[in-house]
């Protein structure tokens, strides 16, 4: 279990993490989302003692990382997959890590097989691709068979098969009762992987909820198809209702449920061909939640001259 209590981190005048508290549950994948610079990596680094909180604490199973006698058996982390010696082979890297914790040769072989590194593990790391490095990082994290896993953007650099593999691995680890904490920029990825989401914006928590709650809380939109768009629009226009004309026969309505739209259409004698509630996507929700919390906003369209 990972617990953060009033966790703060300042770098000079910059506040990277601004008083966050959360508790991650075992048996679940918790997704950690937030725009660039919102404090995800800083939080994860403090979790494994690579950075010191300015105030507050983050503990794993009730203890600070450094207080664990055999930390690799408690928590496995992939924070910077490139943090390896380029001149060593993948197997030598794993051997060194395993030796610090008395981890057996058979366990090393097992994680090599699990991460699909068999073909390259005898080669020097400097020749590894981004994806191979990522897999080696994951292999190292799994070495101690830890109950807590922290993955900072684990799918960075992986091909579609690799992305699917990480997703499956995270789910499998959680199903085995482990606490799995994964940060990602891919909202769609999170909707398929995470049970629970913590969303950060400028160092603060802006949502901490089961993923289905975030999806359900989205604004409901309804797609309506009719040949009498003008009459229908007229019949449903009222305060709080937004109507977008998608094409000559299609309206997208926000702020009114399908039942009410159907009733008003009947009253106005409008024939409706289709009435479909649209599910809000996690992406929509994420954009809405983080809209005011983005630090680095993209400029205009590429190629556009500045105004
Ligand atoms: N070592 C450091 N020294 C100074 N500032 C830092 C340091 N590490 C992080 N920061 C700042 O703290 C803020 C949070 O950074 P962090 O890397 O935690 O964000 P993040 O959410 O992981 O972003 P990304 O999505 O881009 O990985 C940023 O403004 C960053 O510039
Ligand atoms: Mg980061």
UniProtKB/TrEMBL annotation:
Record Gene3D superfamilies: P-loop containing nucleotide triphosphate hydrolases
| A GO MF term | ATP hydrolysis activity
Q: Name one Pfam family in it.
A: ABC_tran
Q: Sorted alphabetically, which keywords does the UniProt record give?
A: ATP-binding, Nucleotide-binding, Transport
Q: Where is the ABC transporter domain?
A: 2-227
UniProt cross-references to SMART domains, sorted A to Z: AAA (SM00382)
InterPro entries with a match to the protein in the record: AAA+_ATPase, ABC_transporter-like_ATP-bd, P-loop_NTPase
Q: Which family does it belong to?
A: Belongs to the ABC transporter superfamily.
Q: What is this protein called?
A: ATP-binding cassette domain-containing protein
Q: Which organism is it from?
A: Nesterenkonia natronophila
What does UniProt list as this organism's lineage?
Answer: Bacteria, Bacillati, Actinomycetota, Actinomycetes, Micrococcales
